[in-house]
Amino acid sequence: SPGSDKGEGIVELPDTSYMICGTSTSFFNGAPQAFLMKIDSLGNHLWAKQYGGLETETAKRIFHTKDEGFYVFGETNTTPTGDYQIYVFHTDETGALLWEKNYGTNSWDILHDAIKLPDTSYVLVGETYGTLDGETDGYILRLDKNGDTLFTIQTNFPGVDRFQGIVNYYDTAFAIGGTVWNADSNFSKAYIAVYALDGTLYWDQQYGDSGNYEILDIEKNNGELLGVGYRISPSDNL
Known about the structure:
- The protein is an all-beta fold.
- 0% of the residues lie in helices and 60% in strands.
- The radius of gyration is 18 Å and the shape is globular.
- The N and C termini lie far apart (37 Å).
């Protein structure tokens, strides 16, 4: 296509076709739009549709529920203030828009990851600039399948905090990974926390000695939580 296209999320459908979500400027000459693209099992293009308003929309994660369609999660700055908010839209099986909603604080809100829970609700994680100290906080948002907010959680650690990844942790909890600022060491530490489905914190832990650490993705394997990310050395800043 003639524009700039970026795919960020994918889901396999029961007939072995795939739905891809992402961001594109190919639909019209203007701001990037969220898009859905369906391909068959061999990678052949079936159809593509765009979603959003007059400004920028992104689509980063997509989930499918049989007979209900697609739930897509990203960001938008088609807002009264121009600040980015979390953008969620729901379509039927053909990609026809059923509803779209924005979520967030009174400042910028950025989405990094999302999961679908066994009860068909969703938990989204990212970061928000809607803070008192001017530094980002980790942000968690749980929505039911109608897009109604069940709860939000915003960290209040000093310094820069963000949540980059989330994974189902058995059927009664979810685990998030990211980074939080450790005031005692004056470094960022890798961070893992496990929450009950009602938002109650089970436990959290910071990881890393000297230097700045961040977890970029988190998975569960044989009951263990595995995080992947990076460390920046305090001596060479690499």
